[in-house]
Amino acid sequence: MLLVFALHISSIDLAAAQPAAPKAYRINTGDKIAVNVFGQPDLSGEATVDQSGKIRLPLIGDLQAANLTLTEIEASITKALAPDYIRNPTVNARIAEYAPIYVLGLVRTPGLYPYREGLSVLGAIARAGGIGASEAQQGAALGALLQAEEKLRLLEVSRIVLLARRARLTALQNDQEQIDFREMSAITFDPARIAQIQDSEQLAFAAERQALRQETSALEQQLPRLEAEIASLKRQTELEQKQRGLNREMMADYEQLAKSGLARKSTYIEVRREEARIEGNVGRLETDTLKAELQIGEVQFKIVELRNVYHRRVQTELRDTEKSLLELTVSLPAAHRLRAAYARQAGMLTADQTPQAAITVIRASGTTNVKHEAALDFLLQPGDIVQIGSLFPTTSELSPEGTAEQAPDAALRSRKGSTAAGVASQPAAETN
User: Fold this and answer.
1) What are the CA-CA distances from residue 9 to residues 6, 32, 103, 124, 235 (Å)?
2) Is 81 within 8 Å of 103 (Cβ atoms)?
3) CA distance 179 to 168
4) Which residues contact 12 (CB under 8 A, 6 or more apart)?
5) CA–centroid distance for 103 within its chain
6) Bridge partner list, 386
7) DSSP 280-298
8) Where is the Soluble ligand binding domain (predicted)?
9) DSSP 8-class letter at 190
10) Contact 64, 76 (CB under 8 A)
11) How crowded is the C-beta side of 151, counted as CA atoms within 13 Å?
């Protein structure tokens, strides 16, 4: 439940005349200054201090005004007019309208409000309708909470998927017969969803093992055929070698007969031709045997390479899964803190757990912005930004170290943009 308390102050007439600023007041960016040059209506009028700290006046042009007192700006205008334009000019300057203040955060109507002398944080909160969340803010907080819960749920599902995948890949890497999901037994999540994820991994596990077995079997089935072919070639080689031995004995006998003149030359030539044929057959059979043995080596290499590629792929997927799990280990605690912070902002916790709304005032100081932790009686200055708590989690709520919340830069940019728009629409000088 969002912290809401009502602030009651007496009604303020916002249309009342602006009280005169003290002469010691330092002019701020966004202030509207009324300049009156006695007897010179064309040189009199109002000008707004722009982001560079200057005002634009007739004849004079741009004149530095920020951080000067009214007395100092009167002296600057007098010096710029005399003696070239007016002899002994009489100049009076006053604040026609202070730079507005901005009330942001846990207020019912956040926005821009006119500044009045002596305005405190309490008065600014009252003008913004008191502390509490508007319907739009409550809707935004609830929407942010739902998004945080959905992101947390997706991260938790991703973690379960990665744990199941790691179990499958580990089983494949170790050539196990089944997946060991015991690491996931302590997970508190939808049991049906966990079972669905595990079943999916079981199917993938069985399919991958079956694919490896089929590819390996297809290669291994080639080995018996090649081995039988080699055995047959070797038997043929042995027969040819025996035939070669017999043929050589016959050729030796014919050579003896030829020396005695008893053998015919044609028969001797035929025996020599048979010797050459047998030698050719033996050479061919030995070559075919070597080819078959080489094919066996290639098949065995393919089987080894198939298993190596399979295990390398499993190892790569396992390494990527471990990396993703490590990233989730970092993301999940932050997602839990984010969800808890949005739950607090959306009023999902009990009243005694709801943090008090902190009040921060951001004030321009030269070219920088200074942040003040403020109480209700803290007096404001023109151009201040009053931040009441925060509709969304701060850095300290999301970080376990509790780092300080950064200033709302978007509000500062909005303030500068609004002031610049006011300057652009403001005439250089107006006639009284």
Assistant:
1) 10, 28, 17, 11, 116
2) no
3) 6
4) 116, 123, 127
5) 31
6) 103, 361
7) HHHHHHHHHHHHHHHHHHH
8) 101-138
9) -
10) yes
11) 18
H or E element in which residue 103 lies: strand 101-105
Helix (H) or strand (E) holding 63: strand 61-64
The answer to whether the CB of 184 falls within 8 A of the CB of 164 is yes
pLDDT tens sequence across 6-20: 333 333 333 334 445
- The pairing of strands 385-388 and 368-373 is unpaired
CATH number of 99-132+355-392: 3.10.560.10
According to CATH, where is 3.30.1950.10 located in the chain?
23-97
Q: Tokens standing for 256?
A: 């003896």
Predicted confidence (pLDDT) per residue in 175-204, tens digit: 999 999 988 888 888 888 899 999 999 999
- Architecture of domain 23-97 in CATH? 2-Layer Sandwich (3.30)
Q: Hunting for tokens 């008065």 — which residue is that? A: 123
Q: What is the Cα 23 distance to its own chain's centre?
A: 53
**pLDDT single digits (tens) 238-289:** 988 888 888 888 778 777 777 777 767 777 778 778 888 888 888 899 999 9
- Which token pair is 211? 């694919």
Query: Tokens in use for 404?
Result: 């300080």
The residues near 241 (Cβ < 8 Å, ≥ 6 apart) are 282
